[in-house]
Design goal:
Elements lengths: L7 H13 L1 E3 L7 E12 L15 H13 L5 H5 L7 H11 L5 H10 L1 H7 L6 H7 L3 E5 L2 E4 L6 H11 L7 E3 L15 E9 L2 E12 L3 H19 L3 E15 L3 H8 L8 E4 L14 E4 L14
Parallel strand pairs: 7-8
Antiparallel strand pairs: 1-2, 2-8, 3-4, 5-6, 6-7, 9-10
Helix pairs in contact: 2-7, 2-9, 5-6
Length: about 300
């Protein structure tokens, strides 16, 4: 008997949440059905990636976002310039709230790209993912209870690559985004908050713990991003990709995603897409979108649903 398609576990999770999840009021006011404490596992050997096939996942958009994280940038201007609008809704909501100007998102994004001063005022997200990944703030004492922030913080990703190369058996291969001291200054505290990596028999595996997970819209991107991270790290550290283990805390579907959920659960997964990294740059921070390719990805039609801000 053939093994189930890798995507079936995602669809089973979606079905479980939709039919048995606890219905609850959430931060956004939309409402969710939620379960707590979930996990998925994916084989990444031979270029495998957990791209969903029952709907199209825009992996290039997700890749541009991930590469942006690695720059440490926290302003949406660079994303908007590439046509990536994943983060635009949060600055836009703040702009409308504080100015009363009910500008359309396309016009807001265009102004972010064209007007550097406007972008500096309204496009920053606070110290979100990338800032914590590559520039976690460090403070040094000045005496008498005073502290000064160092110019350069901790580059967790650079330290991770070094540790994987020099001490692969360590249990401290971790990249953490949950900086308690800065949560209140972030547009959105990190959902995919903790990454941990493990080396065995020349294979690099990774765990992603996600405190809050929008299964319909967010999780497909998060699975791709985590798998991409493992493939890139493996290349940089002369290892083979092993397994992605995903763990969810509050794992939910929004109540206004009914059409998407029902349509996707009526579909059957098929196919075996593979990633190819065409070029090995000098560091993990030097990858470009054109370095990443996906082969044999033939998804079913796009399914859309509103984002809860």
């Amino acid at each position: 008997m053939a093994e189930p398609h890798y995507e079936q576990q995602y669809l089973d999770l979606m079905h479980r949440i939709w039919t048995a999840g606890d219905e609850r009021v959430d931060r956004t006011g939309v409402g969710t059905r939620s379960v707590f404490g979930t996990s998925l596992r994916f084989d990444l050997s031979d270029g495998r990636v957990p791209l969903l096939t029952t709907k199209r996942v825009f992996w290039k958009t997700a890749t541009r976002e991930f590469l942006w994280f690695l720059t440490g940038d926290t302003n949406i201007r660079a994303l908007c310039a590439q046509g990536v609008e994943i983060w635009t809704d949060w600055p836009l909501a703040r702009y409308i709230r504080e100015t009363g100007d009910r500008i359309e998102r396309a016009a807001f994004s265009r102004r972010i790209v064209e007007d550097a001063a406007f972008a500096a005022r309204w496009g920053d997200l606070g110290p979100v993912y990338g800032k914590q990944w590559v520039d976690w703030p460090v403070y040094e004492p000045l005496g008498e209870g005073l502290f000064r922030q160092r110019t350069h913080g901790v580059n967790q990703v650079a330290d991770l690559v070094h540790a994987l190369r020099t001490n692969p058996g360590s249990r401290r291969h971790i990249v953490e985004g949950w900086n308690v001291a800065e949560l209140d200054t972030m547009a959105l505290p990190p959902c995919h908050k903790t990454y941990q990596f493990h080396v065995a028999d020349g294979r690099l595996s990774g765990v992603l713990y996600q405190r809050s997970c929008d299964v319909a819209l967010g999780l497909p991107f998060n699975l791709w991003g985590a798998a991409l991270f493992i493939h890139m790290l493996a290349q940089q550290c002369d290892l083979h990709p092993g397994e992605l283990v995903w763990m969810g805390g509050d794992t939910h579907l929004y109540l206004n995603h009914t059409d998407l959920v029902e349509a996707q659960l009526a579909r059957h997964p098929a196919g075996d897409p593979r990633i190819a990294i065409r070029h090995r740059p000098d560091t993990i921070f030097d990858y470009a979108i054109d370095d990443i390719a996906v082969h044999d990805y033939h998804p079913q039609g796009h399914l859309a649903a509103p984002v809860a801000v």
